[in-house]
Amino acid sequence: MSIADLRNEYSRESLTESDVQANPIEQFAKWFHEAVTAEVPEVNAMSLSTVATNGRPSSRIVLIKDFDQRGFTWFTNYDSRKGQELGENQYAALLFFWIELERQVRIEGRVERIASEESDLYFQSRPLGSRIGAIASEQSRPIANRAELEAQYTQAERQHGGHPSRPAHWGGYRLVPDYVEFWQGRPSRLHDRIAYRVQADGNWQRQRLQP
């Protein structure tokens, strides 16, 4: 079988305008809860796409750590490639894909750093090893070998002990959405797509898109 012949027929559920909430964050909360209940693996994993000043996009998987009416929050190294690109271009896109439910959610908007106090609070909630790792790793920068990385970790562990403080180069980002799209797989590739766009008055306009 060739790659071109690989396909699945989606028929699990449907999505109509009457099914969705008026607010996309509330609709996302509903779908996220259903994905958790369905025990979708890595339900909090999302693709984060950023764009550098030269116009080249880049994507990677990160883990969402919070969401509310303000937006969608994750944590990372501010000096990483994604951090540098967000410093150059504040707009980004998120993508959740829950294949077990034949669903995806696309989210676009402006990204901002969260308050230092919020980053401090989350950093202290992380396992000790993860806190040490955040201090030790100069994320996205070249390194000679694995042994050198582990040596950096050991040095950070010795230096900071069991109660490390959050380093200045690490913290949270929040994507403030202006576009959210819910996609439900359907037979014959006639998928359901319901998109929300924020209006000048702050309200959301909802419409169906062709697949």
Q: How would you summarize the topology of this molecule?
A:
Elements: H1 24-37, E1 45-51, E2 57-63, E3 66-68, E4 71-77, H2 81-88, E5 91-98, E6 103-113, H3 116-125, H4 128-136, H5 146-160, E7 170-184, E8 192-198, E9 204-209
Antiparallel strand pairs: 1-2, 1-5, 3-4, 4-7, 5-6, 6-7, 7-8, 8-9
Helix pairs in contact: 4-5
What's this entry about, in short?
The chain has 211 residues and is α+β, with helices and mostly antiparallel strands.
Walk me through the structure.
- The chain is of the alpha+beta class and 211 residues long.
- The protein has one domain (3-124, 169-209): Pnp Oxidase, Chain A.
- It contains five helices and nine strands, in the order αββββαββαααβββ.
- It has helices at 24-37, 81-88, 116-125, 128-136, 146-160; strands at 45-51, 57-63, 66-68, 71-77, 91-98, 103-113, 170-184, 192-198, 204-209.
- Strands 1, 2, 3, 4, 5, 6, 7, 8 and 9 form a nine-stranded antiparallel sheet that branches.
- A hairpin with a 2-residue loop joins strand 3 and strand 4 (71-77).
- Helix 4 crosses helix 5.
- The two termini are 26 Å apart.
- The model has no long low-confidence stretch (mean pLDDT 97).
